[in-house]
């Protein structure tokens, strides 16, 4: 039987980062079990013919000084900085993202609706309770016009849930809130000011986003990451996991980065409060269609949001504009995102016909366009749904996991809405908790200084 101090389930960015940061102090043995043939998980890239496709757009938004340095060191100069060009297509017009600050270009009645509705919220603010629904928050924050023309239809498409059943916990960093003068300015003229958490982004020049998890995995010790190793069962009482191709693995500490729902389904024993809470967790699947098209520079944009119901997709991104090396010269590549509830039955052939028809009617594809690649890469657990059940359920589950010393981290392990830099930092913080130190980097530096002094 294999024995390890720390067993990490999943070799995405969270799992790899935890292993790397544990290694910085070299005190504990570590094993990462990844079910896929490659590391990277959702931040991976697949080759199909001459095209490289990520799991939709995976762009680097770097906000933390440690995270930024760490990620850029990993990429070793293989990145380019892009000023975001993201748009909304609605009522046959393109407007700049975010919608709430840029209604200029829409038909005038819609602009009027949006600006007047917003001003009403300023003059007659509506008091919101402690835990407003997304619907009430949107009406109180942006007004009826912006809600009707963008916030409601777009978020209904993405979340596939009544907006009155969703909380606002997920949107703090992700939904920009402009001031009154910005909303008015953006209604009357083309406002080029950047808003939001991702005004610019970095992206690898070569290799797709896969180069990031690959570089992180390359920092680990040989044999520490085992691919093709799906976790089948976790006995929390005897601290043993049954893993495909590894057999039984005994661990002292366990770090989960698989989707929390899948992890709990493999664990035994669990108290009833946890199994009940698990049944209250909901998520959406992102059906991601990737196209390689025999036409250069199909668009000058990075990605476009589609709020209208007549289009089955909520977003289309032009990955060849992140890096032209993702496909052959003279071509473009794009990803199209459709969201469905996890338990919806989806007929992919039918959906594909609807998506292609939608792309043609929106002018994204021309009838003469030749498709060189057409690949579905669904993300089964794409978005955790922040309904009113989510936080109480997650709190009950984490209370128990903390009691038995199990960590569950990353976007899906922690059951949250987050991004790659944050995921890498989650791994660092998890390693620090396991090692009982404030900062692995400071500890590693002081250990190496002490060793130098001894020489
Ligand atoms: C549609 C979409 C767009 C996104 N866009 C961006 C973006 O532009 N910028 C950004 O910064 N972030 C983006 N993200 C977020 C980013 O993908 C995540 O923050 C990050 O990749 C999460 O890493 P993770 O390690 O927590 O999870 P994952 O990458 O899901 O890793 C979990 C790993 O566990 C493995 N696993 C699952 N079950 C088992 C099992 N039984 N046994 C063993 N292993 C198992 C999986 O194969 C996977 O490798 C996006 C996410 C989505 C869904």
Structural write-up:
With 455 residues, the chain is of the alpha/beta class. The protein has 3 domains: 2-44 and 209-281 and 387-454, FAD/NAD(P)-binding domain; 95-188, no CATH class; 283-384, Polyamine Oxidase, Chain A, domain 2 (Alpha-Beta Complex), CATH 3.90.660. Helix content is 35%, strand content 22%. The chain contains 13 helices and 20 strands. The chain has helices spanning 13-23, 65-75, 108-123, 134-159, 180-188, 211-218, 260-266, 272-278, 348-361, 390-403, 410-413, 420-435, 440-454; strands at 2-9, 30-33, 45-48, 51-54, 80-83, 86-90, 93-96, 200-203, 225-226, 231-235, 240-243, 247-256, 267-268, 283-293, 303-305, 315-317, 332-341, 371-376, 379-384, 406-408. Strands 1, 2, 9, 10, 11, 12, 13 and 20 form an 8-stranded mixed sheet that branches. Strands 6, 7, 14, 15, 16, 17, 18 and 19 form an 8-stranded mixed sheet that branches. A two-stranded antiparallel sheet has the order 3-4. Helix 3 packs antiparallel against helix 4 and helix 8 runs antiparallel to helix 10 (390-403). The longest helix is centred in the first third of the chain and has 26 residues, at 134-159. It is globular. The chain starts with a strand and ends with a helix. Flavin-adenine dinucleotide (FAD) binds at residues 9-15, 33-36, 41-43, 56-59, 61, 230-231, 257-258, 262, 286, 379, 382, 410-413, 418-420, 423.
């Amino acid at each position: 039987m294999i024995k390890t101090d720390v067993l990490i389930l999943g070799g995405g960015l969270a799992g790899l980062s935890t292993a790397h940061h544990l290694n910085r102090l070299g005190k504990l043995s570590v094993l990462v079990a990844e079910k896929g043939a490659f590391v990277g998980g959702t931040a991976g890239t697949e080759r199909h013919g001459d095209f490289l496709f990520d799991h939709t757009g995976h762009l680097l938004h770097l906000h933390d000084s440690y995270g930024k340095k760490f990620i850029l060191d990993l990429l070793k100069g293989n990145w380019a900085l892009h000023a975001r060009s993201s748009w909304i297509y609605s009522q046959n017009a393109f407007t700049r993202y975010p919608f709430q600050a840029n209604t200029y270009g829409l038909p005038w009645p819609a602009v009027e609706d949006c600006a007047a509705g917003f001003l009403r919220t300023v003059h007659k603010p509506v008091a919101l309770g402690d835990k407003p629904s997304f619907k009430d928050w949107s009406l109180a924050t942006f007004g009826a016009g912006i809600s009707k023309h963008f916030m409601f239809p777009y978020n209904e498409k993405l979340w596939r849930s009544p907006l009155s059943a969703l909380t606002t916990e997920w949107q703090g960093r992700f939904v920009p809130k402009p001031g009154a003068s910005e909303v008015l300015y953006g209604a009357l003229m083309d406002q080029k000011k950047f808003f939001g958490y991702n005004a610019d982004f970095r992206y690898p020049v070569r290799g797709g986003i896969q180069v990031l998890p690959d570089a992180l995995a390359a920092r680990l010790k040989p044999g520490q990451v085992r691919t093709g190793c799906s976790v089948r069962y976790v006995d929390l009482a005897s601290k043993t996991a049954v893993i495909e191709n590894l057999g039984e693995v005994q661990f002292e500490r366990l770090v989960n980065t698989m989707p929390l729902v899948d992890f709990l389904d493999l664990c035994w024993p669990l108290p009833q409060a946890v199994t009940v809470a698990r049944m209250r967790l909901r998520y959406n699947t992102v059906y991601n269609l990737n196209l390689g098209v025999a036409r250069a520079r199909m668009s000058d944009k990075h990605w476009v949001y589609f709020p209208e119901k007549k289009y089955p997709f909520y977003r289309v991104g032009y990955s060849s504009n992140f890096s032209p090396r993702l496909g052959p010269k003279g071509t473009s590549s794009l990803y199209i995102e459709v969201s469905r509830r996890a338990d919806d039955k989806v007929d992919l052939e039918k959906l594909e016909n609807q998506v292609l028809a939608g792309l043609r009617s929106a002018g994204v594809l021309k009838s003469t366009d030749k498709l060189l690649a057409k690949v579905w890469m669904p993300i089964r657990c794409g978005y955790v749904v922040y309904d009113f059940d989510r936080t109480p359920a997650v709190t009950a589950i984490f209370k128990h996991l903390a009691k038995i010393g199990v960590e569950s981290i990353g976007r899906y392990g922690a059951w949250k809405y987050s991004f790659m830099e944050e995921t890498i930092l989650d791994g660092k913080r998890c390693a620090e908790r396991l090692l009982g130190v404030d900062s692995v980097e400071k500890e590693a530096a002081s250990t190496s200084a002490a060793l130098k002094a001894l020489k």
